[in-house]
Design a protein that fits this description.
Blueprint: H1 16-42, H2 48-70, H3 75-81, H4 83-114, H5 120-130, H6 134-150, H7 153-158, H8 161-168, H9 170-185, H10 187-190, H11 193-225, E1 228-234, E2 239-245, E3 259-264, E4 274-277, E5 286-292, H12 296-300, E6 310-316, E7 329-334, H13 338-347, E8 352-358, H14 367-377, E9 380-385, H15 395-401, E10 409-413, H16 416-428, E11 436-438
Parallel strand pairs: 7-8, 7-10, 8-9, 10-11
Antiparallel strand pairs: 1-2, 2-5, 3-4, 3-6
Helix pairs in contact: 1-2, 1-3, 2-4, 2-11, 4-5, 4-6, 5-6, 6-9
C-alpha cells in the first residue's frame, strides 16, 4: 500500500476552479478592451465594411492567441480547471475563431469590392496577387476551415485520435501564417509602437506557453525522472497494472486522481499516447496505472517488458482533493473508473463513503484493495452489482447508502452513460454543484 508524502490541503471556501476561470475571463476581457482601444486609435477607413472586417480580424487574432493558451497544458491552469473543461473551452473558442475570421474575410472582400469594379471572387484574387500577406491569410483561413470540419462530432466519431491530432497540428501553421499576415498589412499592428509591442507580446506569450507546456516541461521532467516499467501485474483476464519507477519521483508534482499521457517506448508503441489515471496515490518511489483491455493498444500493455522506457506527459487533471469543499466525501466509481477513485481514497481525510458500481462481482477490479484500504481509513464501502436497468444508483438507492450526501463532496468517475445518470441523480438529491467533482478524458490538439 502506498503512502502520501505530504498531507492534503483542508477544504477551502475559495474554489480554485472559480479563481482560475475568473482569471481567464478577466484576461480575455482586458485584452479585448486593449485591442478595441488600439483599433480606434489607428483610425477608421471610409468604408464601413472594411472597418467591420478589420475589427473582426483583430478579435479573431485574439481568439487564436487565447486558444493557444487553453491547449498549452500549463500546470497551474490544468490543476484548477481540468483538461476536459479546457478542451471544451478550446472547442468553443475554435468556433469563435471560425466565425470572426469568416466575418473578416467577407467584410474585407465586399468592402474593397464596393470601391472597385471587381466582383467578390475577383477581388479576393486581386488582393492575393497584389497585397503582401493576403495570400498567407487565405491559406491560413483554409486550414482553419479544414480543422474546424474534422473537429465536428460527425468527423470525430469516424477518425482515429492520431489522425485527428495530426490534422489538428496544422493549426499552428495557420497561427504563424495569420501572424505574418497581421505584420504585413495590419494597420492596427503598425499604428503605434505601443500597438506593435502589444501584439508581439500577445503572440509571444501564447506561443511561449505552448512551447513550455507541451515541449519543454514534458521533456525536462522525463530527462529528470528517467521513467521505466518495474513490474507488470495482471489483475484479471482483461485488466493489468503497470508499476513505473524512476529518479526523484518525490519531486514529481503528481496527486491522487490525476492522469498522465503514457508512451511506452517500444518499436510498435512509441508513437501512441494514451491517458491512464494513477490507480494508487504517488508515494515518491513509484507510480501505478491500471488498464482495462479496450482495444489492441491497451491489450498489448500486458506484454510490455520490465525495463521498458516510458515517456509520460503530465500529471494532468483537476480530479483531486484540491477541490474539496467539505470535510467528508463520497467516491462513486463505475467499472475501471475505480482507478482514480482508489487513489483518492488513499489521500482523502475525513469520513468517506465509497460506492463501486459493476455488472458482476468478477468485474470489480481492485475490490480487495478497496476493502483493505477502507478498513484502514475507516471508510464505508458499497459494492453495487447488477444489470444497467433498473438504475441501482437512482436517487432512492443513493440516499439510502449515503443519507447525508448533500453535505458531502462527491467524486465521480466511470463510463459516460453512468456518469450522466449519476449527475442527474445528484441534482435530484439537491447536492450543490460546487460539491460535485468529475472529469472526462478529453484531449485538446
Amino acid at each position: 500500500m502506498t503512502t502520501v508524502q505530504s498531507p492534503p490541503a483542508p477544504p477551502t471556501a475559495i474554489r480554485p476552479r472559480a479563481v482560475a476561470r475568473t482569471g481567464l475571463y478577466a484576461v480575455l476581457a482586458a485584452n479585448a478592451a486593449v485591442v478595441t482601444y488600439f483599433f480606434t486609435e489607428a483610425g477608421f477607413a471610409a468604408n464601413a465594411l472594411i472597418v467591420l472586417g478589420r475589427l473582426a480580424g483583430l478579435y479573431g487574432a485574439l481568439f487564436m492567441a487565447f486558444q493557444l493558451l487553453l491547449v498549452a497544458r500549463l500546470p497551474w491552469l490544468d490543476r484548477r480547471i481540468g483538461m476536459d473543461r479546457l478542451t471544451s473551452w478550446h472547442r468553443w473558442t475554435g468556433f469563435g475563431i471560425l466565425w470572426t475570421l469568416l466575418a473578416h474575410a467577407v467584410f474585407i472582400t465586399f468592402g474593397y469590392a464596393r470601391s472597385s469594379s471587381l466582383g467578390p471572387i475577383d477581388q479576393i484574387v486581386d488582393l492575393a496577387e497584389t497585397t503582401e500577406g493576403v495570400l498567407r491569410a487565405v491559406v491560413a483561413f483554409g486550414v482553419v476551415l479544414v480543422v474546424g470540419a474534422v473537429s465536428g462530432r460527425w468527423a470525430r466519431r469516424r477518425l482515429a485520435y492520431e489522425t485527428w491530432h495530426f490534422i489538428h497540428l496544422y493549426t499552428y501553421a495557420a497561427v504563424v501564417l495569420a501572424f505574418t499576415h497581421q505584420v504585413a498589412v495590419g494597420t492596427t499592428f503598425t499604428a503605434s509602437s505601443a500597438a506593435t509591442a502589444y501584439w508581439y507580446g500577445v503572440w509571444g506569450v501564447a506561443l511561449g506557453a505552448v512551447l513550455v507546456g507541451r515541449v519543454v516541461l514534458p521533456v525536462w521532467r522525463n530527462l529528470r525522472h528517467q521513467l521505466r516499467v518495474s513490474a507488470v501485474v495482471p489483475e484479471s483476464d482483461d485488466v493489468v497494472s503497470l508499476y513505473i519507477t524512476g529518479r526523484d519521483l518525490d519531486r514529481l508534482p503528481a496527486r491522487a486522481g490525476q492522469f498522465f499521457l503514457w508512451r511506452f517506448l517500444t518499436a510498435d508503441r512509441w508513437w501512441q499516447a494514451n491517458p491512464f489515471s494513477l490507480s494508487a496515490a504517488p508515494d515518491g518511489e513509484r507510480l501505478r496505472l491500471t488498464v482495462k483491455r479496450a482495444g489492441a493498444g491497451s491489450a498489448a500493455l500486458r506484454h510490455v517488458k520490465v525495463g521498458t522506457r516510458v515517456f509520460a506527459e503530465g500529471p494532468y487533471g483537476a480530479f483531486t482533493a484540491l477541490h474539496r469543499t467539505r470535510p467528508e466525501s463520497v467516491l462513486i466509481a463505475g467499472g475501471v473508473g475505480v482507478t482514480p477513485i482508489r487513489a483518492l481514497l488513499e489521500e482523502l481525510e475525513g469520513h468517506t463513503v465509497v460506492i463501486y458500481r459493476v455488472s458482476t462481482d468478477r468485474d470489480a477490479v481492485l475490490h480487495d484493495e478497496l476493502r483493505e484500504l477502507a478498513a484502514v481509513k475507516g471508510a464505508a464501502l458499497h459494492l453495487v452489482t447488477g444489470p444497467v436497468a433498473p438504475d441501482l444508483l437512482a436517487p432512492r438507492e443513493l440516499a439510502r447508502m449515503v443519507p447525508d450526501i448533500a453535505g458531502r463532496d462527491v467524486f465521480l468517475c466511470g463510463p459516460p452513460p453512468m456518469m450522466t445518470a449519476v449527475l442527474r441523480t445528484l441534482r435530484d438529491l439537491g447536492v450543490p454543484r460546487r460539491q460535485v467533482h468529475f472529469e472526462r478524458f478529453s484531449l485538446a490538439g
